[in-house]
């Protein structure tokens, strides 16, 4: 069974229940995520004993706002459109990723998942050597890519084929607003003579990015170059804490199969689709333990085989 056949097997009632959005559930999750960021950031700013040990934790909390941006690009975390827009903008500003531009990028990824030459996520190949792996995990390439995209868009030179020509002025304006906000924050920090933004935001982001890279590699790394979402995307059966931090996106094959299902209903979708998933992993450590031994070889994705019972 492929993902289309699975979706066709769902009743109208199941589809309605699975795609029901909730401001209450979204705001509760948002409060937990931002509450943790503000709490840890406050402890760092107050220079509590051993505060440097909190920097990586703050970094993980910050960089995983990417999963909120990702969810908001689908307009699914909240029922109210303005809440989705606010979530996208706030998370995009924090992680340096323009939300409108990312939405076009991400929709192209969904439309052409694992199709070489069409999926924009395949523009940069997945690591297949230790040097590539360590460079990828460092996060350096993604920071360079974010900076280039922001500068290119702000200059009005966006030529990405997944961005509609009629929307490129909006993408330009978005990038200019973001750069303006960053310049205002820099000016304010210099005027106040405080490095607080460095320690509660910028440095933690650098320390947290490797954790996000390790997480994201599991979504499609070593998956098949086929159109079936049950084969070209991996669901990672991680623990509840990781699922909460990542807005349930470890249920990634489920998300790709049915993108309009909000984060809080993905566990329900997982229970329905689990017997048909072709690529699953017990956890992120397990995934990388399998991935790493083949780094010096020439391993390449093939058609996925169903996991052993």
Write a short abstract of this structure.
With 309 residues, the chain is an all-alpha fold. It has 16 helices and 2 strands. 35% of the residues are buried.
Descriptive notes:
InterPro entries: FA_desaturase_dom. Residues 50-284 form the Fatty acid desaturase domain. It holds the Pfam family FA_desaturase. The protein is mostly helical and 309 residues long. The chain has one domain (3-296). The protein is 61% helix and 1% strand. It has 16 helices and 2 strands. The protein has helices at residues 3-9, 12-18, 23-45, 55-63, 65-73, 81-95, 99-111, 130-138, 140-154, 168-192, 196-220, 229-232, 240-245, 252-257, 266-273, 284-291; strands spanning 235-236, 280-281. Helix 3 packs across helix 11 (196-220) and helix 9 (140-154) crosses helix 10. The two termini are 16 Å apart. The model is unreliable at 298-309 (pLDDT under 50).
